[in-house]
Amino acid sequence: MRYLLCLSLLILLQSCSDKNAKTAENHIPEQATTTVPTPDTATRTTQPIVEKPTPDTTFLILPGQRIGQVSLGQTAEQVSNILGKPDSGDAAMGKALSYWFGKNRKNHVVAVYFSRSYTEGPEDNLLVRQVRVNSSAFKTPESLGAGSPIATIRQHYTIAPIAYYQSGRQRIYIFDDMAKGIAFETAVSDSSCIAVTIHQAGEDVTNSYLPMHPDMTRL
Fold first, then answer.
1. What confidence score (pLDDT) does residue 151 get?
2. For the segment 115-157, what is each residue's pLDDT rounded down to a tens digit?
3. At 182, which helix (H) or strand (E)?
4. For 71-82, what is each residue's pLDDT tens digit?
5. CATH of domain 57-218
6. What is the pLDDT of residue 49?
7. What is the pLDDT of residues 7-57, one digit of tens each?
8. How far apart are the C-alpha atoms of 158 and 179, rounded to whole Å?
9. How far apart are CA 95 and CA 197, in angstroms?
């Protein structure tokens, strides 16, 4: 009897031991998880917008319209009221060419070509047909003017060489954007601009350039 009781206790202990072993085997500890922050792809660094400085309207060149305060179509009297009496000029046969020199730099010149119109206002009115400047103070909305490389000007205007004239020993080339009404001059065919002229958009500038440069040769 004692033998059977001992045998029963041994079987019970063995059963408990197997059960505990299986429980230990089946219990797998959870792996520690680490949350790695991911960069927010939607967040982008916004670069500040740097606007180009707007040229002073006093020195603004608007192709086919005006340079500074002198506009195409103004009368000679209106221009004189703005710029004062011309420093030099010539007039004959219903046409006039007037020059205003810079106060501090005499080589800076504003040249205005007038011609009489028999269809616009009184017949005795001389109207502005072209305005030419050679000072780098005057700029287009793209900040182009005297001193700008022709290569840069080509990025904004469809210019083509249309004529040249002699200035001393130098040959000056005229590049015109007829459609927009603006011409650029350069001493070498592909160098920097030395002067800018505005004229009526769509008009052949050489028709009225002649009084400024009588020796001009059309290309």
1. 94
2. 987 666 555 689 999 999 999 999 999 999 999 999 999 999 9
3. strand 182-186
4. 999 999 999 999
5. 2.60.460
6. 61
7. 454 554 455 455 454 444 454 445 545 555 555 554 555 655 655 566 578
8. 8
9. 18
**For the chain, which residues make up each domain, given as ranges?**
57-218
Could you tell me the CA-to-CA distances from 28 to 31, 44, 150, 178, 214 in Å, in that order? Answer: 9, 43, 78, 85, 102
Q: What share of the chain is helix, strand, coil (3-state, %, to 5)?
A: 20, 30, 50
Asked if 203 and 185 count as a contact pair (C-beta separation under 8 A), the reply is no
Per the structure block, which two tokens stand in for 197?
């002229």
Alpha-carbon Rg for the chain, nearest whole angstrom, is 42
pLDDT tens digits for range 52-103: 566 578 899 999 999 999 999 999 999 999 999 999 998 888 889 999 998 8
CA pair distance 188, 172, nearest whole angstrom: 7
99 forms beta bridges with: 88, 111
Q: What is the pTM of this model?
A: 0.72
DSSP assignment of 115-162 equals EE-SSSS-TT-EEEEEEEE--TT-B-TTS--TT-BHHHHHTTS--EEE
What token pair was written down for 122?
A: 């009184």
Any alpha helices (H) in 27-122, and if so which ranges? Answer: 76-83
CB distance 95 to 109 below 8 Å = no
From residue 124, give the alpha-carbon distance in Å to each of 65, 77, 114: 22, 11, 12
Q: What is the rounded CA–CA span in Å between residue 193 and residue 191?
A: 7
